[in-house]
Amino acid sequence: MSPAYTPTRRQFLALVGIGSAAALAACSTSSTSGDGRLRLAMLQPPRSGLNPLTDDAFKLSRWSCAETLVVLDAEGGAQPALATEWTQDNETTWRFTIRQGVTFHDGTELTAEQVAACLSFAAAYTTPPRILDGTELTATADGGDVVVTTSSADPLVPQRLSSPQLAILAAGAYPDQPDGAVNPVGYGTGPFRLTTLNGTASATLERYDDYWGDKAAAPGIDVTFVPDGTARGAALRTSTADLVEAIPVSQAASLEDSLLHEVPMPRTATLYLNTRSGVFTDPAIRAAVRDAVDPDALITTVYEGHADPAAGLLGPALTWAAEHRAWGSQVFAGSSGAAATGKASGATKAGSVPAGTTITLGSYTDRPELGEIVVLLAQQLEAAGFTVTTDVREYSQIEPDALAGAFDAFLLSRATVLDSGDPVAYMVSDFSSSGSFSLSFLADDAVDSAVTRAGALEVGTERHKAIMAAEQAILATGAAVPLLHERVLQGEAAGLSGAERDPRERALITTATKISQ
User: Fold this and answer.
1) Quick check: 128 and 122 in contact, CB under 8 A?
2) In CATH, 9-65+190-242+493-515 is 3.30.420
3) Which part of the chain is the Solute-binding protein family domain (predicted)?
4) Nearest Cα to 48, choosing from 189, 197, 164, 160?
5) Which tens digits make up the pLDDT trace of 112-143?
6) CATH topology of domain 70-173
7) Of the candidates 63, 69, 198, 340, which lies 20 to 30 Å from 357 by C-alpha distance?
């Protein structure tokens, strides 16, 4: 007789809600199985009516609806898409040759003039896409080419143009005013044409038979937005969805293993230590935190094994990181004998924690697992001699305090590659002296020098090596303690094939994606 199954607390809470979640998921799917259409349950509804100049652009990209001039390969290299090739005329000028024979979903032709107009609109937008921060990009048509110019030398121009927020749409998508919303419905170039958006509830796409590339295997996509994680799990369990984004860890035990696919994410849960004021101005006390934490306990308890212990700031989603990490890809044994992280060569040795040392640890509720991590971290730090006060609120409420330095330590789930697919922008933002998101308030000449050097190099092996040297310089300060690298659980129904499992969350449904009938 097999032993009785005892669910964890998280699993029990998920199972309790199965009935109501299944009903919700069943009501939210709009197509009937057997017609070959793909039924997709997504985590977040649109926040701006699918305006591609916002984060909603990633939905259009994942549906293969809107396309960019270039796409990224697994290592972050630029590959042709709506541009077939490109050359660099000088330090600030790039020339992109536009693919011929492409039509928009409204039947109009893709031209260099329209590409230049799209990029110019984005650059002049009231809130330009973040990928253009500091670039002062201009675009003009020159025959069948688009000439892109930046105000200063930028080796990442092709990678920047891969951002879904710089998707190329037909002229009809754009408003007359530079602050108006862009409407992508019926104006993309991809293998699927967006026909309907029903607010924050659902969207419908049809196969575009005049697509310039391979014809899509599926006749269409029916998208439902299901923010409730239990409901998304139930949609997969009850076969009311074929493809499901972000299955919560709490649902994993109630689903067949064959339906779940783990995708390593370029996202690291990191403890930022305030180096500007308070007890963590002392590098030895920062090192005591580094040695006190036990990531394995966090992964086992909170993520139920569905995460990776951090060997540094950059995790397995960046396939080249471990290869160029000077001190190796392994985690190291901390003072407790458990796996600890971030001990780069040159890191300060831990000092003893003075009696009565009190710290405030902050985090946010938008990612529920972080609240659970805070509880365990507080226990681990108290075992090392700290007295810990915690403050966990909604992110919108707590971010101003974190940026103002109100906390001694702040736990953040942070994307380590931003829209360019390159981690230098993240390192500049979070750890340089001029960083705009510097929760550690780090001002270190060695870090600034290392990050600047990495950012000036061409994309390739030498840039990768320089990035890892910058990571080492950051970790040696003890200002950040990376804990774990997150994974996402993607749900795929039996019979589904060809879905992308993309760490950058840009691709999901492609021309090859289909469901057996």
Assistant:
1) yes
2) no
3) 79-436
4) 197
5) 999 999 999 999 998 888 788 778 899 999 99
6) Dipeptide-binding Protein; domain 1 (3.90.76)
7) 340
